[in-house]
């Protein structure tokens, strides 16, 4: 391997992460302190060719292998200059910054043999789409610390159209890959770049802590099947802010494992803060909870979101056999536009990984607050369809004004749910006006109610 030369000019741009642990209200208020990376190399120094045709997997792997030796010297940056850099999947390393210059595009190969097959995640027990293994993601992190993926609006383009066709025609042999996946990692920052055309998910942190995602754009075409933007999965201390995401399926989906596998693994998604996001989802939900939630989802704060042109805006999904819980969720200051269903909570959504699930593992859904919301051109305001054996409780609605379009026949649908509402228009079903629940809601609805849960 050629001896790389440090790109001194880039020093100011490449940084190492430290999350300031001091107490504050919501993960996004924790300051990220970025220390400069003392070393930088360009992918060109490893023989990469940015012509969109040459496969650069070995160049990325060799560059990362070389940069491993800087881990105990403050880490290093891998600089990707303008060009179209075709690659199969590769791994990152700790104390690394992957920097995509303006005009730099990392292109995912459309040849499945360039994507390794890996074991399913233990909290899922199998691939999500097919039993057995799954394709490894394009960019991977396993048991890493202090990793930054950033740039001057460079792009990671999964060229997912082939995967969407294989999915739709049932010709996949394994579950589709994602663009970026971190497993069992901490102190991760993804910022200032664009993600396009993911085969399935764009960013999938699973079993991770301290994940910050700032100022990214994520796009896949409306018809791309089950493409999802960001999926925090069995992860904690996550911030997603200033992002614009437009997807075929869900824009952001919080998950935590599937039925008996997720229950056994038992790692929740907790302490997630999402703010100042623009989300669009053609056939799913702008913001989804579940349906895989068997490890539990709690202490989630969402504020200042614009949710538009979507099938649903906010959806809670679960089913019997799933176990787990979704609780202590506060969603406020939303602006909804052109959405079929503003709020959904569905207690029989999704399928099971196999027939070994426990049908008596009932999920719990409670302490959900939705407040300060305006919606225009909405067909269904809310559909809360709970589970008879485990009704949804303490659903707290406040200061919501939804303008329903003429396509609507019913604005609210409720069963096996109880909750409390104040200043909600149109008037919700009586199940959501139960003054018996008001005491638990009132503490959640107070201006400082969030400190009660976060
Ligand atoms: C990538 O990391 C995985 C562990 O997640 C490992 O099994 C695999 O061998 C690594 N691949 C390369 C090329 O280093
Ligand atoms: C967001 O990222 C773009 C490049 O993608 C950059 O031009 C812009 O300044 C960034 N904004 C912030 C607030 O970081
Ligand atoms: C970033 O790049 C994408 C795709 O190349 C482009 O659509 C978008 O306008 C760019 N954003 C900024 C802030 O330059
Ligand atoms: C699935 O496997 C079959 C048989 O090996 C192969 O012909 C086909 O190309 C594979 N499909 C994909 C999408 O890799
Ligand atoms: C993102 O871009 C903005 C504007 O150029 C810059 O201030 C910020 O430091 C960048 N973020 C990271 C993590 O590089
Ligand atoms: C209302 O929203 C629907 C999508 O739910 C959209 O098709 C329609 O064009 C919107 N109407 C107006 C007047 O924007
Ligand atoms: C009600 O919500 C709107 C935004 O939808 C907000 O502007 C207003 O301040 C809220 N009112 C109260 C009393 O919180
Ligand atoms: C409400 O959700 C249930 C369960 O998904 C569904 O069967 C029903 O059609 C929905 N109702 C409306 C009006 O959307
Ligand atoms: C409220 O609680 C009282 C006493 O626990 C009960 O009798 C009543 O039916 C409840 N009302 C509703 C609407 O659930």
Describe the structure.
Keywords: Glycosidase, Hydrolase, Signal. One of its GO terms (molecular function) is polygalacturonase activity. This protein is mostly beta strands. It has one domain (about 125-450): Single-stranded right-handed beta-helix, Pectin lyase-like (Pectate Lyase C-like, 3 Solenoid), CATH 2.160.20. Helices cover about 10% and strands about 45% of the residues. The chain contains five helices and 31 strands. The strands form four sheets. It has a 22-stranded parallel beta sheet that branches. The protein has a five-stranded parallel beta sheet with strand order 6-11-14-17-20. Strands 1-2 form a two-stranded antiparallel ribbon. The longest helix is centred in the N-terminal third of the chain and has 12 residues, at about 55-70. It starts with 14 loop residues before the first strand and ends with a helix. Residues about 1-15 and about 450-454 have low confidence and may be disordered. The structure holds 2-acetamido-2-deoxy-beta-D-glucopyranose (9 copies).
How would you summarize the topology of this molecule?
Elements: E1 15-19, E2 32-36, E3 39-42, H1 57-68, E4 76-80, E5 83-87, E6 90-91, E7 96-100, E8 104-108, E9 117-118, E10 134-135, E11 139-142, E12 145-151, E13 155-157, H2 161-168, E14 180-183, E15 186-191, E16 194-196, E17 201-206, E18 209-214, E19 217-219, E20 228-230, E21 236-241, E22 244-247, E23 252-254, H3 259-265, E24 269-281, E25 285-289, E26 297-317, E27 325-346, E28 364-385, E29 392-404, E30 412-415, E31 417-425, H4 438-445, H5 450-453
């Amino acid at each position: 391997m050629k001896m790389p030369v440090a790109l001194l000019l880039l020093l100011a741009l490449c940084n190492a992460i430290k999350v300031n642990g001091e107490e504050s209200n919501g993960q996004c208020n924790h300051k990220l302190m970025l220390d400069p990376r003392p070393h930088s190399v360009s992918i060109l120094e490893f023989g990469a060719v940015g012509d969109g045709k040459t496969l650069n997997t070995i160049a990325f792997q060799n560059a990362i292998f070389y940069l491993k030796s800087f881990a105990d010297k403050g880490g290093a940056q891998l600089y990707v200059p303008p060009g179209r850099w075709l690659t199969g999947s590769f791994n990152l390393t700790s104390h690394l910054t992957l920097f995509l210059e303006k005009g730099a595009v990392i292109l995912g190969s459309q040849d499945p043999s360039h994507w390794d097959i890996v074991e399913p995640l233990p909290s899922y027990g199998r691939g999500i789409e097919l039993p057995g293994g799954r394709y490894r993601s394009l960019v991977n992190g396993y048991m890493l610390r202090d990793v930054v993926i950033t740039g001057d609006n460079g792009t990671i383009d999964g060229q997912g159209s082939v995967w969407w066709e294989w999915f739709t025609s049932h010709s996949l042999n394994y579950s589709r890959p994602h663009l970026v996946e971190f497993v069992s990692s901490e102190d991760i920052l993804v910022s200032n770049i664009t993600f396009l055309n993911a085969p399935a998910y764009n960013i999938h942190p699973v079993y991770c802590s301290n994940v910050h995602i700032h100022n990214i754009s994520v796009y896949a075409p409306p018809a791309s099947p089950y493409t999802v933007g960001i999926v925090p999965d069995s992860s904690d201390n996550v911030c997603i802010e200033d992002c614009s995401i437009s997807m075929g399926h869900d824009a952001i989906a919080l998950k935590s494992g599937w039925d008996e596998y997720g229950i056994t693994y038992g790692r929740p998604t907790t302490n997630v803060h999402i703010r100042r996001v623009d989300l669009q989802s053609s056939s799913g939900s702008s913001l989804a909870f579940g349906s895989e939630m068997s490890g539990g989802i709690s202490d989630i704060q969402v504020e200042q979101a614009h949710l538009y042109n979507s099938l649903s805006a906010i959806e809670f999904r679960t089913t019997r056999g799933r176990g787990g819980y979704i609780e202590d969720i506060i969603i406020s200051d939303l602006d909804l536009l052109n959405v079929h269903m503003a709020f959904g909570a569905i207690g029989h959504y999704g399928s099971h990984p196999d027939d070994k699930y426990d049908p008596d593992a009932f999920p719990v859904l409670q302490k959900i607050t939705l407040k300060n919301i305006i919606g225009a051109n909405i067909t269904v305001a809310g559909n809360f369809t709970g589970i008879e054996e485990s009704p949804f409780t303490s659903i707290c609605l406040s200061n919501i004004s939804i303008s329903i379009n003429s396509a609507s026949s019913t604005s609210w649908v409720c069963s096996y749910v109880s909750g409390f509402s104040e200043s909600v228009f149109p008037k919700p079903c009586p199940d959501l006006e139960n003054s018996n629940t008001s005491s638990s809601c009132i503490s959640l609805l107070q201006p400082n109610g969030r400190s009660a849960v976060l």
